[in-house]
């Protein structure tokens, strides 16, 4: 099976908050009633005129499967349970999820035969839920994907859901139309549309459970299949290698059993290579029992193990601490780093094929002394304190395009809330105030008016942040970028690392988001979350940039992939030199 991992969970500045779906518009009934996939919505709330698909009663798991989990994901249970075989083409399987032996949540994988307008179809759903500790705040995060398929496996509809912020959910539905998938947003993404290539043979959620079935392969043989990667809104190829059979113990206190072992590798997303996944499946039915992959961004080896619903949903006693799993430890502290002029770091990234491209070179960062064999380089990061006055020392950058001023899905400024906040932020400025002065006023207003730094939200849109005025660095940056655009100042968000201390005082680089504005011919950084703590404008060498983005016409999380690549590479940083 492919790697089961929601992108946002891998980023320290992002978490998925379970939220209720927004109310759907009511349309009159008719033969062409739209399909709604709503696995957890009460039936009595179904709007008229919609065909609503949801899993029905639970279909039992595989025959005679013990209900105990391995020590790596052990929870108290009431012993093995016999279960009848699946009925028809349906199933309802539960997997306990763990990282390095500590449970973090579960995956429910279901499929049900349904009938719509006299047509027999199959509806498959994967619902993944993790509980993690984000800077001392325990957050339950989820991701869900589902498909409507024909009995032969042709995907007709695909849907992905995830929470963004308080009372805000992103729902993207794609309907296959020949060799095109017509993607439409619902809820927070209402009105968004896009078309992407849709080749024949894309495997859906229900069909993927049977991907290993009836495969007569010799050890070392491979086969490919296509899957829809919703976070990137594109179809990717997965290459599967059959490794042979082996004896393995799945559940504590049960004998070893013969299992087929497969390794699945998803094609790269640009420079991002997702980790290979190893699956142990029943040799006869091909149904998976255990999936594992190494992922440094979550702290090590991730395991999904088939078990009972009760064992999979047992309370998480020790939530995974994302800061410990994701922050990069420094070898020594840099007192007053944000007020320094330059820091030279030695970076080692042995897991990445092109480590020197992990961090961009711009007016504030420079990659030097690359050792391609050892996969090390120096990263020189300088402070940026506002517009450079010496034109000879600072080359003027190309004037940004309209995408850095437009109102987009995430940076949506064309509404009364964001425009009102922006107007209040600059109200005290003279009529002659320029872009930099306006941006500084916005930075100050956001810093002073955000009610709290809380970590339950993830990539909330600017209008939602403007309403709640709470969140973490992603919410600070999105709102500030939107307010700048509302005042005619081009802006973009920046993903990167920021110097910080853990509770014991040890120095780290933690994943972070801030923004850049275009003023006086230059892209200049601002950090509304740190504004009160910094004595100077801009940012210092404690801010290490990974990527920037305008979010123009962007409704997926592709702009986050460069950070996911750095997490996967798990680089080490040493402090070489510090300039005052």
Description:
By secondary structure, this protein is mainly beta. The chain has two domains: 8-324, no CATH class; 328-386 and 401-579, C8orf32 fold, CATH 3.10.620.30. Helices cover 12% and strands 38% of the residues. It has helices at 205-208, 309-312, 322-326, 416-425, 435-449, 462-468, 473-486, 561-569; strands at 35-37, 51-53, 91-99, 102-116, 119-134, 137-149, 155-165, 168-177, 180-187, 193-197, 202-203, 222-229, 234-248, 257-266, 277-281, 288-295, 300-307, 320-321, 328-329, 342-348, 365-371, 376-382, 452-453, 470-471, 491-501, 507-519, 522-526, 543-549, 572-579. The strands form five sheets. The chain has a 16-stranded mixed beta sheet that branches. Strands 19, 25, 26, 27 and 28 form a five-stranded antiparallel beta sheet that branches. A four-stranded antiparallel beta sheet has the order 21-22-20-29, with no helix packed on it. A hairpin with a 2-residue loop joins β7 (155-165) and β8. The radius of gyration is 25 Å and the shape is globular. The relative contact order is 0.14.
In short:
The chain has 580 residues and is mainly beta. It has helices at residues 205-208, 309-312, 322-326, 416-425, 435-449, 462-468, 473-486, 561-569; strands spanning 35-37, 51-53, 91-99, 102-116, 119-134, 137-149, 155-165, 168-177, 180-187, 193-197, 202-203, 222-229, 234-248, 257-266, 277-281, 288-295, 300-307, 320-321, 328-329, 342-348, 365-371, 376-382, 452-453, 470-471, 491-501, 507-519, 522-526, 543-549, 572-579.
